[in-house]
Amino acid sequence: MERLTIKYGELFVPKKTCTIDRFGEADDCDSCDSVCESDCENCAVQECFTRLGEYEDTGLTPEQIREIDRLYAEKCREVAELRQRDTPVKVKPIEVYHPVGYRVGQCLKCGNIVRDYMKFCFDCGCRLEWGSWEEWENYDER
Question: Domain residues of the chain, as ranges?
Answer without folding.
Answer: 5-59, 86-141
